Structures are given as structure tokens and as C-alpha cells.
Amino acid sequence: MKNKKFITLGFASVCLATTLLFSVNLFASSESETNKEASRLQSLAKFTKVIAIVEQYNVDDVTIEELMDKALDGMLKNLDAHSNYLTQKDYKKLKVQTNGEFGGLGITVGIRDGALTVIAPIEGTPADKAGLKSSDIILKINKESTLNMTIDEAVSIMRGKIGDPIDLTIVREGESRPLNINIIRGKITIESVYAKKISDELLYIRVTSFDKKVTQDVIKEIKKKKATTKGIVLDLRNNPGGLLDQAVNLVDLFVDEGDIVSQKGRKEIDKKVYSASKSKTLTTVPMVVLINGGSASASEIVSGALQDHKRAILVGQNTFGKGSVQVILPITDKEAIKLTIARYYLPSGRTIQAVGVKPDVIVLPAECKTQQNGFSLKEADLKKHLEEELVKVDGKDKDKEDKKEDKDIITPEMISKDMQLKEAIDIIKALVIMKG
After folding, report:
1. Catalytic residue at 297?
2. One of 230, 308, 338, 418 is an active-site residue; which one?
3. Is the distance from CB of 296 to CB of 357 less than 8 angstroms?
4. H or E stretch including 150?
5. Crossing angle for the helix pair 88-98 and 151-158, nearest 10 degrees?
6. Span 193-362 CATH architecture
């Protein structure tokens, strides 16, 4: 009887203790929420007070609307290099850019170590023709210092009327002094995908940016030559990125299972995993991917995923290292904010942010040196070479053949000017031989 009474009392004591503990936790949680709300209200009151003081005493007359715009702008700029407040004017410019055609220089820029840096010039644009290179640091735009200038401010200044000139002062690795480059603004239209034959068995595909048509254009190019293609060189050099879904879909053409990329943020809704589907696999031929310091964002997802899946060999230089996710969130019909909400992670779990993707074979950009001391001796230089063999090729006049230059072929001249491409071609040839 005593034991039973002891058990009953013991059980009652445990229940009482549990109830008290639950009550304490509930009280602590409630107190924490109350303190958090009080802190929030104090902070908002402080903000309102500062706005009122500046509006009343500032040396120049400023409206409450102007002060709020400045406050929002400053707040978002201090979060990270890619978040910012889009005024009506900025938001309109962003929509124009999204349509794929605008007036400007044709470069993608980013903030690296606090400096405004060229991620990549877009192929064939005024910036590319003027000689701007990936990793160039822009010191001044039209004599205006870029110190503490945001990406969007810089882009806003560099865009302008087609035909108008602009001066950039840049610092380039290997140069002893800053360089002044004059560029005439042009109409920027981007051809994102084009392909050339390296040989009857090898295909070269260049992707310059990830717009909404990239995957379908790559599919089209592969299908044209699928019957004879035994190896692919995918060139992502100086590709600044673009749409995430296009990067995922492009990888899915070459990988039949497993994760492609994941993104992780504070909110559960921002945590996503993108995986490959066997039904979308287009080809299993060996691949080499070309990358460099101008390969960023979506390019890094594609190259990193193919590397993690051991689906391709990466050749070139370390990529830029932009592994964050930004979204445009409208706050009115005419204004919005661009906010970083997550980070990308490759299939192996490694991050791209500030690290980039490392190539399997490091090759620096250079021209191929095929001659010694500027002199070489060929069969055609010998006195008694077979001249008649040069006159006809397969029964056709050689001079006429030469005039029919195929623009869809990677020529020896192109290869001789690009050591990274030459290395990629040598590797893909070896891979094709190994596969049999």
C-alpha cells in the first residue's frame, strides 16, 4: 500500500514538475517574443525620429519621399554586393535589359574584393572589340571614381545612347599603369548559342549567356550533327550566367540521374534541389568544358555539376565565384528590390560563392607557338615538290575550294590563337579514342 502511495505521489510530482517546466518555457517564449517586438518598435521609432530630424534641419530641402528612397537604397546596399533598391527608373531599365536588347558597352561587371571588376565582355560587343578583358578592374567611368559605387550605379552610367562615347580607366594584371579605353556605345543584342565543327566527329558549342532559349538552341545544334558526333567541347568562357532553369536544363541534356544543383536560404520555400531526369538525356558522348575567370553564376553551376558527375573534363582557369540567388520583389507597380535569398551548392555539396570552380586541367590563355625562331620548312618549300597535287583537290580546282570557306568549322588558325581551345581539342580526341 505504501509502495502504491509512493508511486502515485511520484507520478504526481513528475506531472507537476513537467507542468511547471512547460509553464516556464511558455513564459520564457512569450517574454522573448515580447522583447523582440519591443526592440522592433524601438528601432522603427528611432528610424522615424532620424527621418524627421533630417527633413527638418538638413541644409538642403529634401522631401520625405527622397529620404525614404535614400534610406532603402543604403539599407539594401549594405546587405551584400548584389542586393539593391530599384527606383522607378532602375526598374524600367531592368525590364529593358531582360528583353535582351539595349544600348551599352556589352560587359558584365561584379564587385570583387571591393572593386568594380569586369566579369566578362560579351562576344562581339563594343567592349569586346575595344579589348576589355575578364578581371579588369574599372577605376573610373568618364573620370568619375568607382570607389563605393554599386553595380547598378555603374551599369546605369555605362548604358546610354547608341553612338555616344564613354571613357573607362582600368587596371589590368601585368600592366604597370592604368589603361584608358575609349568605347562607343552600341546596340547590345546577344546571340547566346552557336556551334562549329572541329572535325566530322567533334562538335564545338559556344554558350555566351544563359537566356531563355539556350537549352532549345543547344538541342538543335546537337541534333543537327548527332549521327556523326563522338565528342563535344562546350565553351563557357566569359559567360556571365543568366537563368537558373536554363543552366539546370542544359546539364540535364548530358546527365541522366542525380542532383544538378541545390539552393539553401533562411526560408523553407527557398530551399530547393534540382535533379536530372533520364528522359531528358540527349547524348552520352565524351565532353570537355572550357572555363575561365569570366565564367560566373549559371556557367559555374553547369561546369561544376558536370565535373561532380564526372561527366566532363574542365579545362582553363578558375571561375568567378558567384554562387548566390537574387530575386526581384516588386514593392509597388513601378518600384522593386533585388534581394539575395539563397546560395547555390553543387551536387557534391561544395559552394561556388567566392571560391568558384577549379578546372581539372589548368591552361592559361595564350597563342600556340608552332614555329621555332620564326622559321619552318615544309614540303611546299622544296624545289621538286609535287606541284600538280596542289592544283587539284579530289579533281576540283584548289583555288575555288579555298574560296568556299566554311564558317561553321573551327580552323587551324583559330586553334593556333587559342591555347585553351587547343588543349580541349587534344583532350576530347583522347577521350573519344579511349571510348573506342
Report:
1. yes
2. 308
3. no
4. none
5. 70
6. Alpha-Beta Complex (3.90)
